[in-house]
Each structure stands twice: as C-alpha cells, then as structure tokens.
Design goal:
This protein is mainly α. About 40% of the residues lie in helices and about 5% in strands. The chain has one domain.
Length: about 90
C-alpha cells in the first residue's frame, strides 16, 4: 500500500481486478484537515503533497489535551477535568 496518489495494480484472489470495481480515492488536503478538526480557515502552505504530509504529522487538539492531561495527572497525582469522555 502506498501513500502517494498514483495508479496501481489491484489483484483479488490472484486474478487482476477490473479497475472499475476499485471504488476508493485519496482524500484532499481540506478533507484531511476537517477530519482532524482543523478550522476551515486554517492555512497550510505548500503543494498538495506537502499539505497532506503536514496534516499527517499533526496532532489534533483533542489528542494533545488527553496526552498532556495524562502526563500532568501522572506527575501531580491530581485528576484533571477534560472536555472528553474516557
């Protein structure tokens, strides 16, 4: 499996699959950003490939909150209230 948006060969059970039967596509950078809870007006610079790479390296705010909260709780022993259910 590749992360690059290009054509490839698909085989099902050892026999080639008809290209028309393969119904998936690569997500566009704005779709990736929306799925990762970035605001629509968030600016990501670069070409399409660079934007996808930057989103791939990003940590969403809800994940960052959970990680930092867990770290603070481990260090201080005090349970923090977060905006996310466990």
């Amino acid at each position: 499996m590749t992360t690059r948006d290009r054509y490839g060969l698909a085989a099902v059970g050892g026999s080639p699959a008809a290209v028309d039967d393969v119904l998936f596509r690569m997500l566009e950078p704005h779709e990736i950003g929306a799925a990762m809870t970035f605001l629509p007006d968030y600016v990501v610079v670069g070409n399409k490939r660079e934007k996808v790479r930057q989103f791939g390296n990003a940590v969403t705010s809800n994940v960052a909150e959970v990680l930092v909260s867990a770290l603070v709780e481990a260090v201080t022993g005090q349970e923090l209230a977060t905006g996310w259910a466990a």
